Amino acid sequence: MVQTVLKVHTRVSDLYNGPLQQTEQQLRLTIAALRERQEHELVNHPEFGLLHSADLKQRLQPRHGPPTPDDLDELLSRRRRTKLLLAHPRAIAAFHRECSRRGLYPTPVIVDGSRAAAWRGVPLVPCDKIPISAAGTTAILAMRFGVDHQGVIGLRHAGLPDEVEPGLSVRRMTVDDRAVTRYLVTAYFSAAVLVPDALGILEDVQIGR
Fold first, then answer.
1. Parallel, antiparallel, or unpaired for β 59-60 and 2-9?
2. 198 burial class (0-12, 13-18, 19+ CB within 10 angstroms)?
3. Cross-strand bridge partners of residue 193
4. CB contact at 8 A, 128 and 89
């Protein structure tokens, strides 16, 4: 769970609701920040975060330090139907440098209407929530999704009171003696790896300092 309280003075909604409804906009920004925190927890949480959920047999080391095409080929070969490679933007840049060094130019793919880097047709999606160590190393994750494919699945509580998005509720609390309205914004979430080969990690890839 991640949770925060939004405070909005009543005069804001009284005086400044044109052309935008101010409370709605403040809630939109608050929800966006909460979703960023949710993404961080899904990657890093010690109990269910993806970095801590991979089986030991699905954890690989790079051959020479930086992530190479050979490293990603081995990562992909460990599972069927890999749908996504998740990496820090600096790790993606390091991979592209290795490709350029070999004269390789991977073909991008279209993901949700936007061009994305890819390797072997699998999208290489940036995620700045994957940590970089003081030594300049990070990890690249490979995932298969969905119950039908025994992959990685997201979990959330259904049918929350005052639900505004799946797994996220906004409850109006009180108006205090300073005319400040308080809204409790809560997101419930988790993740599960259904079988060990649904998630693999290329660990300790060197991206430079």
1. unpaired
2. buried
3. 152
4. yes
For residue 194, pLDDT beyond 60: yes
Tokens (6 digits) for 131:
């940590």
Residue 69: closest CA among 106, 109, 107 = 106
- CA dist 202 and 77 (Å) reads 12
Q: Please state the φ and ψ torsions of residue 155, each to the nearest 5 degrees.
A: -120, 140
With CA atoms as reference, report the closest residue to 207 among 105, 65, 72. Answer: 65
Strands 122-126 and 118-119, bridge-based pairing: antiparallel
Element (H, E) at 93: helix 89-101
Question: From start to end of the chain, where are the E strands?
Answer: 2-9, 59-60, 84-87, 109-111, 114-116, 118-119, 122-126, 137-143, 152-155, 163-165, 168-175, 180-187, 190-193, 199-206
Kindly report, residue by residue over 28-66, the tens digit of the pLDDT: 999 999 999 999 999 999 999 999 999 999 999 999 899
* pLDDT above 70 for 209: no
| Cα(188)–Cα(41) distance, integer angstroms | 11
**Model confidence, pTM:** 0.89
The answer to whether 184 and 5 are in contact (CB under 8 A) is yes
**What is the chain's mean pLDDT, rounded?**
93
- The candidate with the shortest Cα–Cα distance to 66, out of 101, 33, 38, 32, is 101
